[in-house]
Specification:
single chain, alpha+beta, 3-stranded antiparallel beta sheet, 3 strands, 18% strand, elongated
Length: 97
Amino acid sequence: MTPRPWNVFQLANDPVSYGEDAGRYIITASEGDKEVCGVIYDEADAMLVAAAPELLEACKDIRALLDQEGGFDCICGNSQRCSICCLEAAIAKAEGR
């Protein structure tokens, strides 16, 4: 995975330099020297993408804690409606499974 932290960077509102992407957002890693993904049009979406590594880590920590407390059992029969199923599905999606 790309090194953390991921940060939201707003491109200058300068159409000469950035064309139609002026004022849009990108996600950068570390000290801003590495672009994680291309242009994102909505600030809220950019914030969510930038938080992705921390969110994945938190989900894995919660799953590990549940395992330590006696299990990670689904309470809905895998209909993916319970929080446990949603947690596992989110981890799987983030890991490309």
